[in-house]
Amino acid sequence: MSDSEFDKKIRRSAGGFLSVSGFFSTTANRSYVENYAGNDTNETDRTQSALFEIEIDETVNKFQYADISKNSAFENEAEILFTMGAVFRIQSVDHDSRGVWSVKLKLTGEEYEELQKLTHRMIDKTLGGGPKVSLASLMIKMGKYGEAQQLLSEIIDDPSIIIDSKALAGVHHHLGLVYKYMEQEQNAVKHYQLSLQMKRQLEEPEPSSLACTMNCLGLRCLPQEQEPIIECLIVISQLYYEYNMFHDALETRQRALSLQSKLYTSDHIDIASSLLFIGQLYRHTKNYDQTLVYFDQCLKIYQANYGEEHVDITQLLRKIELTTNQMNEEAIVGDGVPLRLYKLLEVAVHFIISNYLQQNVAT
User: How much is the pTM?
Assistant: First the structure.
């Protein structure tokens, strides 16, 4: 597994969920799979070896799995196959003495509140407005804007959609997207505004959905070349970071953040990503005051978009705690002496004095 993919999906998501998009082939024969996990010392720095150990809660019946060892092409494989869409809780991620990551997973059910929310969001995103809206969305992705526009215009007159404000807002958002690609700016703005108005009138408007439409509406009023510029700046800043060129990375990412602040709403998650990245750069240069400023701004956006128990919030709070501890340890006391060194000297002096007193008392 690539280093970046492992970090994003596994190492930084401990306590969160791992979703499988295709069939997931596993084995009950540990020694068999350990041969494949091997040792990553001969691999490049950009790959990771990982061994997944899965605990199955037999009361979970949402995700199907089966022992297909009798039908496997390899007799000793003892293959157990999990169906598409299976979701696992990442319980722990450890690096063993062989250089292999040991990842403990648990097949989980819907009793977790976070998973229920995630499932509902995925269903709303995929099927919001019914199969016709899903078909129109697919047409947009295929570049068939005329067909998508015609279908969405028909959906607007559907009685079942008219009475569903949330679905109707989604249809108008899709129409705004279609007209944007068809370069009909006035129509795009019109439908984005209708979508935004309807979303705001919902009993429980979703911040992420509001932000999405507000973002699209804002982009109609700003130069279109800004988005690819932002993407390029982000990639360049990451390359600078990889080569430990922190000053250049900081300068480049701040330029990206400046453009993002003009394009997006203040609680947009992309802005949070840049704030977090800049905070980490300041942490590398030991500018802990600035680190905490950017981490705090990022935390506020996370809290506005996610639940308090979200893994990103937990990890960020941990970063804030570690940064605060580092700042305290490296604080400067009198005559420019670091606090950590001062404490070590204090302990050493106390030991010497105690030892001296004991020897004198003994004599």
Answer: 0.37
Please tell me the distance from the alpha carbon of residue 174 to that of residue 195, in angstroms, as a whole number.
9
Contact predicate 263/227, CB 8 Å: yes
Dist. CA 155–CA 162, nearest whole Å: 9
Distance (Å, whole) CA 139 – CA 300:
37
For residues 195 and 335, what is the distance between their CA atoms, to the nearest angstrom?
A: 62
- Residue 312 has a CB neighbour count (10 Å cut-off) of 18
> In the prediction, which pLDDT does 163 show?
78
d(CA 45, CA 36) in angstroms, rounded, equals: 18
Burial pattern 120-149, b for ≥16 Cβ within 10 A else e, equals: eeeeeeeebbbeebeebbebbeeeebeebb
What pLDDT shows up at residue 74? 63
Note the pLDDT of residue 123. Answer: 45
Strand pairing class (24-27; 17-19): unpaired
- How many angstroms separate the CA atoms of 339 and 280, rounded? 23
CA 168 to CA 180: how far, in whole Å? 18
Would you tell me how many other CB atoms lie within 10 Å of the CB of residue 222?
12
CA 28 – CA 81 distance, rounded (Å): 10
Q: Are 282 and 290 in contact (CB under 8 A)?
A: yes
pLDDT value at residue 282:
94
Q: What is the pLDDT of residue 220?
A: 53
Looking at residue 24, the DSSP 8-state letter turns out to be E
- E strands of 28-127, at which residues? 50-56, 65-67, 79-82, 87-95, 101-107
Angle at 119 between CA 114 and CA 122, to 5 degrees: 125
Paired tokens of 356: 């001296």
Sorted by sequence, the CB contacts under 8 Å of residue 196 that are 6+ apart come out as 210, 213, 214, 217
**Predicted local confidence at residue 127, as pLDDT:** 40
**Residue ranges for the chain with pLDDT beneath 50:** 40-43, 111-112, 119, 122-123, 126-127, 222, 333-334
| Contact present, 281 and 238 (Cβ < 8 Å) | no
pLDDT in tens, 121-176: 544 554 455 667 777 887 887 788 889 899 898 888 887 777 778 888 888 888 98
In degrees and rounded to multiples of 5, residue 68 shows phi and psi of -115, 25
